[in-house]
From TrEMBL, chain A:
Keywords: Signal, Transport. Pfam families: SBP_bac_1. This is Sugar ABC transporter substrate-binding protein. PANTHER family: ABC TRANSPORTER PERIPLASMIC-BINDING PROTEIN YCJN-RELATED (PTHR43649:SF34), ARABINOSE-BINDING PROTEIN-RELATED (PTHR43649). Gene3D superfamilies: Periplasmic binding protein-like II. Residues 1-31 form the signal peptide. It comes from Marmoricola endophyticus. Belongs to the bacterial solute-binding protein 1 family. The keyword Cell wall biogenesis/degradation does not apply.
UniProtKB/TrEMBL annotation, chain B:
Gene3D superfamilies: MetI-like. This is ABC transporter permease. The keyword Thylakoid does not apply. SUPFAM superfamilies: MetI-like. It comes from Marmoricola endophyticus. It comes from the Bacteria. GO terms for cellular component: plasma membrane.
Length: 434, 318
């Protein structure tokens, strides 16, 4: 039999297959040209409820359209995905939302396109001090602060009434732990082995007047100060809570969500958490919302009682432009628009992630959602906020901190800070695995 | 009794031609070599290149985010790893998980294989039902088991509250022992079907005649199992244990989903992941991967030796 006559011969199939492939190729080429009205800028965002999407729409122009792509929920995973792609010089990322602790690492690695001086001056002018500090690496603003988050102490009004605490004065950790233990309440914090636990420890150490690390410009030779008196004071708080009746059962695995759930339960008394808590219970537990009070972040060591000595955790998002983008100039222009105070307000209204500038707080609709004294508390807290140590090695320091301080019930104020400082030094020098 | 166990694969083995090959055979051989060459070259490229690259990288102090500080350290990374307590702790965890899960799976898997082999009614349905867990993606099953043991929305605490030591407040992922227990349960649930499938293949190769003969000789059920069935399944058991042991030694998904390595539950693979992916320590991480690779080779070699099975024979090549 001749091959061509065999109905199962592969040749019979070749022509339609080739034609199909050609069609597919032509279609995809056409699709690529489809947006020929302008450039598409891809903005990698951390997940939120549509705030950054709305801002992307506001900032799209005739020259370019900003499209968002969502990064993983976990800040550490966001860092991993962005850094690995940037290390491979991926041009698919134009703009990205970067968590403050990783800003220095990205800038130091040369992943970020520099902003013009005029833009840096404008950002310095408009942003809160904490936001500027977290966005600065080697005296240059390397990311544009979009929103600034800060933790405050949330409490159940009914509980503090029962316990008889005066919340108009600054309170210490010791006070709230004792009050909760004595009255069957829980103090909800973030103490899972993750970034949030480092956030808490950093705030406790800063609140005692210390620092995790200094001389960070020396890279892996930075001075590690965890073993200072401030470190011991911080460890005392962690150990006291973990061993008290005020510790939630899931303390060692609790992240923001679990802590929020504990606070919303019958045992809820105190909670340290970000700004989103104000709207967190609106839909699901309106009775909790009615009972929700707020005060400055608790003090690690008691001050003189007039103003708080606490240094609440700082969080937020800075917008960076990839050096490997094919449209750096457009992306920088878009970034300037994204971080305009009005757009910070738009984002805050939709997500509860508060603006990084005082001007952003003036955005009218925010005043309808949030009581003025809460907005004031947040701004005051942002002024006192302690950003995590700005160093390209933050993830090493944070990881080593988590390894030595977790679980919270094993923290010993006499040994943990010393052990942890030595471990961080060894990890930075690559003498120990993490 | 041992006389009943006939030499394996006697009917499949063909005498090998020892005589010098003819021209035709040589030509066929050459053609065969040319035909497989592209595949062999491709395989070498995709497997050997990353291996050699890892070997090369393991000699450097090299961090993805500070590429300019790359520095040759020779075997320094290996020294760091091998003298690190974390490495040995994670290796211990990995071996513990491997030994416990493979042992439990072997027993349960064998029972399942017997059920699948002997069942007379609804054979297809029962075989399928037993195999379902293996069809589920590990990450999905890990999440399912994480929810199962979760303090907030799991059902284990309420369902087993009558057992001493379990209360509504038991935090399974809050301690080492309980976390490892949850991880192993998930691993066993997920992969026992695979074990039973391999054992079923071995079981169906055991000649019914031999079992009949043993019965006639008056062997009890236990004697038949120990002296007839198991010895004749040795190759199948070896393959099952080998595959599962190597798989279990590389455990990652369950730990990643359930504890993220907290409470000291990290495994060797997890440690490697942390170094390479999370810490961007390409040098240290590559040294760990090389060590992991060597350990896997060692385990494979050990298991093959332990079962004294000729691999060619196990494949039925005689």
């Amino acid at each position: 039999m001749l091959r061509g006559q065999d109905p199962r011969s592969p040749r019979r199939w070749r022509r339609p297959v080739v034609a199909g492939l050609g069609l597919g190729l032509a279609a995809s080429l056409l699709a690529a040209c489809g947006g020929s009205g302008g450039t598409t800028l891809t903005w990698y965002i951390n997940p939120d409820n549509g705030g950054q999407d709305a801002v992307a729409k506001n900032c799209s122009t005739d020259d370019y359209t900003i499209k968002t792509q969502v990064l993983p929920q976990d800040a550490g995973q966001q860092r991993v995905q962005l850094a690995r792609r940037l290390a491979a010089k991926d041009s698919g990322i134009d703009i990205m939302s970067i968590d403050p602790p990783y800003t220095a690492e990205f800038a130091n690695a040369g992943f970020l396109a520099p902003f013009p001086e005029s833009m840096q001056d404008a950002l310095r002018e408009q942003s809160f001090d904490g936001a500027t500090k977290a966005a600065t690496w080697q005296d240059k603003i390397v990311v544009a602060p979009l929103w600034s988050n800060v933790q405050v102490l949330w409490y159940r009004k009914s509980f503090v009434q029962k316990a008889g605490i005066d919340m108009s004065k600054p309170v210490t950790w010791d006070q709230i732990i004792k009050a909760a233990s004595a009255n069957g309440g829980k103090v909800a914090v973030q103490a899972n082995k993750y970034e949030g636990y480092s956030v808490w420890i950093n705030a406790l150490i800063s609140g005692a007047g210390g620092e995790l690390a200094s001389n960070t410009s020396r890279g892996d030779d930075a001075t590690i100060d965890v073993s200072s008196q401030a470190g011991k004071d911080a460890a005392k708080v962690v150990a006291e809570l973990a061993r008290s009746k005020a510790a939630p059962a899931d303390l060692s695995v609790s992240q923001e969500g679990q802590a929020g759930a504990t606070f919303g339960s019958d045992q809820g008394a105190f909670l340290v958490n970000w700004t989103y808590i104000w709207t967190n219970y609106d839909e699901t537990q309106p009775e909790v919302k009615k009972d929700l009070g707020y005060a400055p972040y608790p003090e690690t060591v008691a001050g003189d009682g007039s103003t708080t000595t606490s240094r609440p955790p700082y969080g937020g998002i800075g917008i960076g432009v990839s050096k490997y983008s094919d449209h750096v100039e457009d992306a920088i222009e878009a970034t300037a628009c994204i971080t305009k105070p009005t757009n910070q307000g738009v984002n805050a209204e939709l997500t509860g992630n508060m603006p990084a500038s005082a001007a952003g707080y003036d955005y009218k609709p925010l005043k309808k959602i949030y009581p003025q004294d809460l907005l004031d508390l947040w701004q005051r807290s942002l002024d006192r906020a302690a950003p995590r140590t700005v160093t390209p090695y933050w993830s090493d320091i944070s990881g080593a901190l988590q390894s030595t301080w977790h679980p919270p019930s094993a923290v010993n104020p006499d040994t943990t800070p010393e052990k942890s400082a030595q471990f961080i030094r060894d990890v930075l020098k690559q003498k120990k695995l993490l | 009794m041992s006389a009943v166990a006939a030499p394996r694969g006697a009917h499949t083995s063909r005498p090998k031609p020892k005589a010098p090959a003819s021209d035709r055979a040589k030509a066929e051989n050459r053609l065969g070599q040319r035909l497989v060459a592209p595949a062999v070259i491709l395989m070498v490229l995709v497997t050997a290149y990353p291996m050699l690259q890892a070997l090369y990288l393991s000699l450097f102090k090299y961090r993805l985010t500070t590429p300019d500080d790359r520095q040759f350290v020779g075997l320094g990374n290996y020294a760091t790893v091998l003298t690190d307590s974390l490495f040995w702790r994670d290796t211990f965890n990995t071996v513990l998980i491997m030994v416990v899960t493979v042992a439990v799976e072997l027993v349960i898997g064998f029972v399942f294989a017997m059920v699948m082999h002997r069942i007379v009614f609804a054979r297809g349905a029962i075989r399928t039902a037993i195999l379902i867990p293996y069809g589920i993606i590990t990450v999905v099953s890990a999440f399912a088991w994480q929810f199962t043991f979760s303090l907030n929305n799991g059902w284990v605490n309420s369902a087993f509250a009558w057992l001493p030591g379990i209360s509504p407040d038991t935090n399974w992922f809050g301690g080492y022992g309980t976390s490892m227990f949850a991880i192993m349960i998930s691993e066993i649930w997920k992969t026992t079907p695979f074990m039973s499938l391999l054992l079923l293949a071995g079981l169906s190769q055991v000649s019914e005649d031999m079992i009949e003969a043993a019965k006639v000789d008056g062997a009890t059920w236990w004697q038949r199992l120990r002296r007839v069935i198991l010895p004749n399944m040795r190759a199948a058991i070896m393959v099952a244990v080998l595959f599962r042991a190597l798989d279990a030694f590389r455990i990652f998904d369950n730990i990643f989903v359930m504890t993220k390595g907290a409470q000291g539950t990290a495994s060797s693979s997890f440690l490697t992941y942390t170094q390479v992916i999370e810490q961007f320590q390409l040098g240290l991480g590559s040294a760990l991967s090389v060590l992991l690779f060597l350990t896997v080779l060692l385990i494979a070699f050990g298991i093959v030796k332990l079962f004294r099975v000729d691999l060619a024979q196990a494949r039925g090549e005689g």
